[in-house]
Amino acid sequence: PANEEVEFERIATAARPGTSIKTAFQPRPSTSQRRGTALSHSSGSTRPGSALTRPGTAISRPGSSLGARPASRCGTASRVRATSAAAFNVGDATAALYQASRLNPTIYAEREAIVKALFQFLYYHEADVQKAHSLCQAVLDVQRQRPGQAALAPPADAARTDWWWQQQMGRCLLALHYPRRAESHLQQSLAAFPHPDTYLLLSRLYQRLRQPERSLVLIGQAAERQPFDVTFRLEQARIHAAMSQQEDALQLYRLAARLQPINVEALASIAVSYFYDNNPEMSLMYYRRILSLGVHTAELYSNIALCCLYGGQIDLVLPCFQRALRMATQPEQKADIWYNLSFVALTSGDFNLAKRCLQLCLTADARDGAALNNLAVLSAHGGDVMGAKSYLNAAKDVLPEASEVNANLQYMELNYKL
Amino acid sequence: MSLFNVCSWWSAQCGDTVGDYDVASLLCARFGLEAQEKDYIIVGSQSGTLSIYYPHGNAFEATDLLLETQLTTPILGLYAGKFSGNVRNENVNQLGVLLPNAFVIYNVQALSGLAEYGTQLKLQQLAEHKFQRVAFSMCQGHFGQVKGREFFCVVHLDGTLTFYEQDGISYECRFPGQRSLPAPVVYCERTDSFFRLSATWHLQCYSYQDLSHSLVTKSSYQPIWSQCIGEGILDMRVVQLKESCSYIMILGERNFICLDDNGKFNFILKLDYAPKCFYSFVVGYYWEPGARLLTTIVSDSAQLHIYEEANIIWAAQWQQPAPVAIQRSNVQGLAGSIVTLTASGQLTVGYLGAQPYQFQVLPLNIEELSFAEAHKQLQQLEDEIKESVDIRDMDALNQQAADQVRISFSIQREVFDDLDTLVLDVPADVAVKELPSAKGLLKLKIKGELAELQLVIKTPNGVRCSQETLSLVDVPAGSTKELPLDFYMAELLHVHSTRVEIFVSFVSPRGIPRVLQQSACLPLSMFYRSCQPQKAAGIKLTYTITSKHVPPKLATFFGEFLEEDSEAQALGLQLLCPGLDIVTEVITVVAAKNSNRLRIQSDCVETFAMILERIVDTTLQLDSDASLLKMHKRKPKRGVLNRCVERIMAAPFIPTQPILHRADVHHETQQNIRKQTAQLEELWQQFKTLQRQLQEQTESEPKETLTMQIEANYDHLILEGDKLVEIRRDEHRQRSDLNCAVALAKWIIHALNLEERVVNVVNAVLSVPVEDWTELSWEESMAPGIDMLHHFGPLMRSKSTSTHGLLDGNTSNRDSFDYSRFRRHFATLFDRIVRLASSSTDEQAAKQAAATEQAVEQLQPAHQVNEIGSMQRMLGEKKSTLPRAGNPNLSSSLEAVEDEEEYDEDDLRDMGYRKDYGPAAAGADGSEGEQRKGKRSEWVNEDFELPTTEELFSDLGIWW
Q1: Which of A32, B179, B445, B886 could lock onto B569 through a cystine, CB 3.0 to 4.6 A?
Q2: Is residue B789 part of a domain?
Q3: Where is the composition biased (Polar residues) (chain A) (predicted)?
C-alpha cells in the first residue's frame, strides 16, 4: 500500500517493465505487415495505434510502463496527498487522535528522542510533505544554533550528526519540486555520510534536472563502493533505459540478475528486451521463471500470453488472457488486457472481435488514445468513415501529440472530403 | 520469490497456541548434562509457558518434549550462560529467564526415565534478581573480560540499564538527557564495550569501564563513538570474525547494516523486502583464516535470504507463515539446522535443500465452451442489447418503464403552518416569516428487480423539499417505498413556477437505463394569500377560455382561495414571498361575467408566472380530461395552428418593457460580478507574488515591510471577496426575478394564436429556469438562439421584417457579446410574435365577419397590425373589472360600488379604447379610429383595452 512517490524504499511487487506490453507491438515487423492490410487506407507507413501507446502510458497511467518510470516515481506532493493519505486514514482508528496539520514543528524540533520518528510519521504515514519539510527546517535551525552539538557527541562526529536531517531535507525538497535547493542538502549529506538512499535521491534529482549523465556518474561511484548492491545496478540500468540506451541497460540488468538471480525487475527487463528483439521464446522463458518465483499478476499473464502469441504457442494465449482478466482489478489493467486482446483478434483476422475488444478497453478506460485510434482505423476499414473521424478526434483529445493520430487525421483530410 | 523451499525436518506445535511469541522467545543452547550433548531448543511464550525440546529424529515424538511448565508471569527472554559461580563443571550452563520484574536463574537437571517415556528435565531455581523498573531485554557476557562466569545487564523500558555481577553487586546506569526509548543493547567481548541504539537512531559505543566507574566518579556517560544509523532497528548482534575485529550486525527497518567495533561502516545493504528477524554467525573459527560471516534474514513474506557478508548466496521459501525468531543450531542428527518459531508457536527445525519451490498456479475452473450454446447465449445477449438500445418506439419504452416502476406523486392542496424550521434548517430570515408549507406523498412501487434507482426531486428556485434525492441499490422486485415530503420556502425569492418535478432514473440488473418523470403542482396558497383586488395595475393580460369543458369561473382555477360554488368574479392575491415591506405585490384576476374571458393584472411582473401557469394548465388539464382528443399524440406540422388555442387563447400582448428591464438588471449584475472577479484575481496574484517573495527571502533580510504588505493585501482581498459574495446574492435574486419574467412571456406565448411550430420554437428558446455559468451568462447563452429566430426561424417570414431592420448584417463579430443588440433582438422578437398573433387573430375573426369588413382589413394589413401591436404594448391600462365583489370574504371591503351590469361584454366595449403612447399610433389616430369602429365587435374589446386614467377618473371616479 506504500505510495510510490513518497516511498523510495518501495518494494517491487509487480514485474515492473513490460507491464504494458502493448508497447511491444510497435517494433515488430511481422505485426506491421500483418496489420498493413487492415490499415491500407491509413497514411503510408505510419502504423496507427502502436507507437503512440508509449507516450500514452506515460500520460495516462504512471508506473505501468518502462518509459514512464521516472515520471511516476517523482510525483507531486498534491497527488500524494490526494491518494495515499486518504487511503491510510480510512480505517485508521488513530486518525481522530491527532491532526498533523496543527502540529507545531518548533516545539518538537528540540525533542531529539522522538523528532526523527515524528518526521517519518509525517512523511510516510501522513504523506504531508509540507509539514515534514517545516519540521526538517526547524530541526536544522536548532542544530545551527547549537553548533557541534557538543553536549552529546565528540567534536569529530559533529559533522556527521546531521547527515540524516540533510538527507530528509533533500527528500522533502525533491518531493516538493525544488530540485535545485534539494541538491545542496543532499550533497552535504553525502559528504558527511555515504548512505545509499542519498545516492538514489541525488540520482533522481539529476534525472529530474535532465542530467542523466551526472546521475550515471554518481551511481557509478556508489556501485563501486558497494559492488554487491543490486539497487545501484538497477538504478544504473533504469537511467540507461531512460536515455534509450537499451543495450547498456540490458547489460546492467543481466549483471543484476547475476548478482541476485531472484530479482524480478531485472528478469522482466531482460524478458522485455528479448521480446522486442523478436525472440518471444526466450522472453517466455524469463517470464516463466518470474512466474515460478511466485509472482502472480495480471500483467505477467498478459505478457506471457503475448509471448505465446508471437512464439506460436497459440493454445496458451487465451487461457493466459483469461487468467489475466480474472486477476485484473484496476480499470487500467483491464483496459490494457483488452487492448492486447484486440491484437490477438487482429492476428486471427477477426476485425469484428478486435473492435469489440477495443470497445471493452474503452469501457474500462475511456481515455485510452491508442484504443480510440485503432478503433478509428477499424471503423474506417469497415466503411464507417464518419465514425472513424469522430474516434480520431476523440483520440486527438486524449493524445494531442501522438504522431499516428495526427497522421491519420491528415490522411482523412486528404482522401475524404469531410 | 525464490526457487527453493526451506525443507522441514522436525516440527512441533508449542503448548501455547494463542500466539504470543517474539524474537526473544526462542533459544538454542546446551546445558552440559551429558557428554555427547546436542542443542536443546527452549521456547518461552509471553503468556508464561516454558518448554524445552530435544529433537531425536526427523519427526516429532512425545519424548522430544523434555519439559513443559507454566510460569506465573510472561517470559520476556531466555538466556543460557554461566550465571552461577558455584558450579564445578565448567561446561554446565544455567538457564536464565527474564520476567517483567525479575531475572530468574535455573539449574537444569535431567531425570533419566526408566520407562519408554524417556528423559525429563527439571528446573531448580538458583537465584532470582528482582528489580523495580519493568524489563525490556537483557544482555549477557563476560563483562570486564572475566573468565568462567558471565554477568548480565537488564535493559529497562525507560532505557536505563541495570548491571548484575555475580557477587551480588548491581548498579544502575541512567543515561543523561531525555528519557530514551528502549532498544536492544549488545556486548562486544573483544573491546569490552556495549553498543546501544539511542532514541536519535545513533549507535553508541560505551566501554564497560566507563559505565561501571561512572557511578563512582559521577562522571557523565560519554560514548566512545557514536554513529548515525538513521532508522529504527529490529535486532542487533555482535559476531567476531577475526582476531582483530568484531562486527556489529544490525537489521534495520529498511537496510542491513554492518559496522566494525570501531564504528566504521563495513556496508549498508538496502533491502528490497520487509525484514522480520535475522541471525548472523561465523562458519569456521575466527582465529583461523577463512572464517565466513553468514547472515540469514527472514522477510515478511516468509522467505529466507542468506548472505555472505552482503552478497546474497541463497534464497528459499517457507510454506508456512513467516517466523518471528530464527536460530542456527546443532541438534541431534542435523548439524547446522535452521530453527524457527512462528508467532503462533509453530516450532520447526529445517534445512536448506535443492527441493524446488513449486509455485502452484490455481487451476481456473472454466467450463468447456460449447459453441452452439455460446452462440445461442451471444445471440440472446445481442437481442437483449438491441432491445434495450432500440429507441424507435419511445412511447412503448416509456410505458414499459412506467410499468416497471410505478410512481404516484401527489401534493396536498392544503397548506400547513406547522413546519419544523429547525430540523429542516430553514434560514432564519425565511423562518421568521412563517410561510406556509405544503405536504406531498411519493409512492414508488418497483415491479422488477433493479440494480440501482435514483430519485431526484426538482423544486423551483427558492422552494426546498425535505428530501431532494434518494438512491437505492440492488432493489428487489416487488418492493415499495413511501416518502412523505415537505415543501417549504428556503429562500426569499420570487418563485416562477409551482411545478415540482420528479425524475426517477433506474438501471436494471442488465444495465439498461430508464428515466421516468412526473410532476405535481404546489398549492398557490403556499405563495399567495388572498387580499383585496386591485383596481388599477400596470400590466394587464387577457385570456379567453375557448374550451367548452372548462367553466370560466375563478373557482375553477383557484380552488385554494375560493369555494367550489363561489361565484366570485374578482380575486386579489398577494405574494407572500419575498414579502418585502415596502411593496406589496398584488395580482388580481377577474373573470368577465358574460364571456369566457379572464383578465389578470398586476403592477409587478413577478406575480404573474404562477397564476398564468395555473390558468393555462388547469384549462388544458380539464379539457383533456373531458374530451377524447389527446394533444400530445399529434405531431406538429407546418402551418398547423397552436392547438392550445382551441382551449384557451391569450390576447396578443406581452409586457416587453418590464421583462427586458429584468434582463437589464440581471445583465448589469453579471457585469459587476465579472469586474469583481477580475479584481479579486488581480489581488490574488499580488498576494501570491508577495508570499513567494517572503518564501524566497533569506533569513537575514528584514521581513517587516513585506509582512505589512501581505497583511494589507490580505485584508483587501477579504473585503473584495465579501463584496463579491454580496453581488452574487443580488444576482441570485435577480435571476429568480428574470425567471418569473421569462416564464410570464412563455405562458402568454403558449396560448397565443400562432402557428404551433412557432410556439414550440419560441418556448424552447425561452427556457426556464434561466441558468448562468461562470463562463457564460444567461444573456450570452440566449443570444444565439434569439439571433437564430431572427434570421432563420419561422418568425422570419413575418411580413414587416423590413421596417424593423432586423438583419443588421454585422454578425461576424461573434467574440464580443453585444448586450444592446441582444436586447433589441429580444424586444423585436416579442414585438413580432405579438404582431403575428394579432394578425392571425384578426384573420380568424375576419373570416367570420362580413365581407365588407374583410375588405377594409385587407386594405391596410401591415399598418393595422403594427398599430394593434403597439397599442397592446401600452402600460397603464384600464382598471375596469377589478373589484368584482367575487370573493365573498372580501366583499365587505370592496365597497360593492359597481353594479353587475358593468361586466357585460357590451359595457366593456363601450368603455372604449385606451390611447396609445407609442409613436406609431400617435399620428394615425384618425384612421385607427375608423378601423376600430369597423372591427370593434369582432375583436378589439376582447382584449380589455382599457380606458385612460382620465377616463377612469371620470367614469369610475367613485373609486378614487
Answers
A1: B886
A2: yes
A3: 20-48
